[in-house]
Design a protein that fits this description.
Shape of chain B: elongated
Structural class of chain B: alpha+beta
Strand content of chain B: 25-35%
Number of strands of chain A: 2
Strand order of the largest sheet of chain A: 1-2
Structural class of chain A: mainly alpha
Order of helices and strands of chain A: HHHHHHHHHHHHHHHHEHHEH
Distance between the termini of chain A: 13 Å
Largest interface: A-B, 74 and 62 residues
Number of strands of chain B: 9
Shape of chain A: globular
Oligomer: heterodimer
Radius of gyration of chain A: 23 Å
Strand order of the largest sheet of chain B: 1-2-3-4-5
Helix content of chain A: 55-70%
Strand content of chain A: under 5%
Number of helices of chain A: 19
Radius of gyration of chain B: 25 Å
Distance between the termini of chain B: 71 Å
Number of domains of chain B: 3
Chain lengths: 528, 197
């Protein structure tokens, strides 16, 4: 290992390492682009978070308090869009950029210039989403699902939203083609597919999903656009179209999208848990097959989002059974993570705490998903706060907690400095507690019948809404602590040891120095 | 809501028009030679053989993608796209087809780029008075011969390395890191007449 370190030790200064703003604008370096993705996603996380706090402030009490209903609807729409497309997806693309080349022994991504372009498409898309708020009539209050006919009748903000979705889609496709090509063609000699770290496997499968479903989303929003402006009637019943067709198209994209977010999160957790258990991942092959099974099944269950839209009982039964089936490979994964920890030499540094938090809360979100998969139950709970609670347990406690685990885990590798462990743990516990304060009570609200996407509600829901709002503010402010921890680490963190986590065994830890050099693996690593 | 219609159209066209310079700028950026170094060639195998005064330098791609896997990956993705687009077209949503087609095209272009690079190599063979340079880049193979007494190693912008003689210049060490190019330059320099910067 020392030889490898010596070989790369000088690389930080090689190749006229660019500096200044143009370093970032023109960068084709996977590490720089990964960093930009991560910072961009955090900025979007804050924007989406502010929108969430506006929603929760309005819902603190019944009645209209601080915003008008149209603005409230707009906030729910753009909170969802920005969090899904602007925050969580780019965060994991950031991880992919940073880690995939280092984990497979490649010097960079397969198409570095395309990599730069796929990042720089994101800011204009984000600006379009934010600019939509200032269009005549305000932002489009159509929900992140952009259901027709609401979206075909919405104001001009809808057009900006459609263009933004197109740009985000192009960026995702370019990123995915890059990831597929990199993983398949640029592995170091000896790095067979079944020796790759699980994070690479999860991203390979995710990239497949992205490539498969993005044209569907692009087609769906384009049909909305042509229905709005060019006289088509894809979703207009008066012209012979079918609004329910939009729901089918959207959810054919939308359900795999859930896994596009969740599967890389599985990958991160699959790196963190073995490292802090000081054991190899239990059932590596079964983890790979389970991930692929989840991805395949995700194409077959889309209509469980539409039980109340009207479909034959046979179709309802099929989608119910198919959805329940996803619990099998997901159960395999949860079992393997727990089995990895079983009799391991566990320590509980911040990344491990977030990984365990993920495991606990994601499993809860999975169970409420199982509840919702049962058709007669879903008919009762559809469009209630139970659904809101369910998908926030999956998205926030699942994807976001996993992203936090990953950031704390790889921060020493990225920066060469250690973060403040005490503050990191504070961040975890505050996030865990306030997350549950915010969202656990929403299960009760949903079970009691409170509908989602409303700015006002019946008085019997007041107490739980108050608790939820307090939790949301607590959770939001806890993330400022995270920002402080990261900035403190970068500016004044203690120098990280070469390998701060003794159980970490992927190439970036075993074959590269800390911090990772500007260029890594210009010559392929020697693998056993 | 109808009051929005005219504004909608104006905004849509406005945005479309506004996107054009953005697209032009982006494509111009793609074409432009960026100052930041790009590692366009990634994993290499290199052989440096020394046989007395003789010297062979050989470098080639070592892509991990087998042709069969490659065909399977691209084929399965294109088939999946086709099936999805055809399914929705049958239900009336034909507008997914052009996007699926565009994406399949992008996939095929990416695949073609990698196939073209797959067999690329560079060989510099120094024997007796003769220097033979063989280069295969993006599928095009070329061969150059120099006289050892006349050929010079020259370094250019961004550390690029070339052999020059009688007005002919051939770039070498194109798949190397800067460090590798410096090493190659030293090796050649010691065997040729001199080295000019």
């Amino acid at each position: 290992m020392e030889a490898a370190h010596a070989q790369h030790g000088h690389d930080d200064h090689a190749h006229g390492h660019p500096t200044g703003i143009m370093r970032w604008v023109k960068s084709t370096n996977h590490k720089d682009i990964g960093t930009m993705y991560l910072w961009f996603s955090f900025a979007m996380f804050l924007v989406g978070g502010v929108m969430a706090l506006i929603i929760r402030t309005e819902l603190f009490q019944p009645g209209l308090q601080i915003v008008q209903p149209d603005f409230f609807n707009s906030m729910t729409t753009y909170h969802g869009l920005i969090m899904v497309f602007g925050a969580i997806m780019p965060a994991f693309v950031g991880f992919a950029n940073w880690l995939i080349p280092m984990q497979i022994g490649a010097p960079d991504m397969a198409f570095p210039r395309m990599n730069n372009l796929s990042f720089w498409l994101l800011p204009p898309a984000a600006l379009l989403l934010i600019a939509a708020q200032f269009m005549p009539g305000g932002g489009a209050g159509v929900g992140w699902t952009m259901y027709a006919p609401l979206s075909t009748q919405a104001g001009p903000a809808m057009d900006l939203t459609i263009f933004a979705v197109h740009i985000l889609g192009i960026s995702s496709i370019m990123g995915s083609i890059n990831i597929i090509t990199t993983i398949l063609n640029m592995r170091a000699p000896g790095m067979s597919l079944m020796k790759m770290p699980l994070f690479c496997w999860t991203w390979l499968i995710t990239a497949y999903l992205v490539v498969a479903v993005m044209p569907v989303l692009a087609g769906a929003v384009t049909m909305i656009l042509t229905d709005r402006h060019f006289g088509t009637h894809f979703f207009n019943a008066a012209g012979g179209g079918d609004p329910v067709l939009y729901q089918h198209i959207f959810w054919f994209f939308g359900h795999p999208e859930v896994y596009i977010i969740a599967i890389p999160a599985f990958g991160v957790v699959s790196q963190v848990i073995p490292a802090f258990s000081r054991k190899p991942l239990f059932g590596y092959a079964s983890m790979v097959y389970a991930t692929a099974s989840i991805a395949i099944l995700s194409f077959m269950v889309w209509a469980h989002h539409m039980y109340t839209a009207g479909m034959p009982v046979e179709a309802q039964l099929y989608f119910m059974y198919a959805t329940v089936l996803i619990a099998v490979p997901t159960g395999v994964k949860v079992f393997n993570w727990v089995a990895t920890m079983w009799k391991g030499s566990l320590t509980f540094e911040t990344p491990m705490l977030f990984a365990i938090g993920f495991l606990f809360l994601f499993t809860l979100g999975g169970f409420t998903g199982l509840v919702l998969s049962i058709t007669p139950v879903d008919v009762q709970l559809h469009d209630t706060y139970y659904v809101v609670a369910h998908f926030h347990y999956v998205m926030v406690a699942g994807a976001l907690f996993s992203a936090f685990a990953g950031i704390y885990f790889w921060l020493p590798k990225w920066t060469g400095k250690m973060y403040d462990e005490t503050l990191g743990k504070w961040h975890f516990w505050l996030s865990l507690v306030f997350f549950n304060v915010t969202f656990f009570v929403q299960h009760f609200l949903g079970l009691a019948g409170m509908p989602r996407r409303i700015p006002d509600y019946a008085v019997q829901f007041t107490e739980f809404n108050m608790i939820s709002t307090i939790g949301a503010f607590g959770f939001g402010f806890s993330q400022l602590l995270f920002l402080y921890v990261v900035v403190k680490c970068i500016r004044s963190g203690e120098k990280a040891p070469e390998k701060p986590w003794e159980g970490a065994d992927s190439l970036e830890w075993t074959h590269l120095p800390t911090p990772a050099p500007w260029h890594s693996f210009e010559t392929p690593p020697v693998l056993k | 809501m109808r009051a929005f219609e005219r504004e909608n159209r104006l905004f849509s066209w406005g945005i479309l028009i506004a996107m054009v310079p953005f697209g032009v700028l982006q494509s111009a950026r793609l074409k432009k030679e960026w100052s930041a170094p790009v590692m366009t060639h990634h994993v290499f195998e290199s052989i440096l053989e020394q046989d007395g005064a003789g010297f062979t330098y050989f470098r080639r791609h070592a892509g991990s993608l087998e042709l069969r896997t490659f065909a399977w990956v691209v084929g399965s993705l294109c088939l999946l796209l086709l099936l999805v687009a055809a399914g929705f077209a049958a239900a009336g949503a034909w507008m997914i087809i052009p996007f699926a087609g565009l994406e399949a095209t992008a996939l095929l272009i990416a695949a073609a780029v990698f196939l073209r690079r797959a067999g690329d190599f560079e060989r510099v063979d120094v024997r007796g008075d003769r220097i033979l340079v063989e280069v295969r880049e993006r599928g095009l193979a070329e061969q150059f011969e120099f006289h050892r007494g006349w050929a010079r190693v020259v370094t250019g912008k961004a550390g690029k390395l070339a052999l020059r003689s009688h007005g002919r210049t051939v770039e070498i060490g194109r798949y190397c890191s800067e460090e590798g190019r410096q090493m190659l330059a030293r090796e050649l320099h010691s065997r040729l007449g001199g080295h000019r910067a």
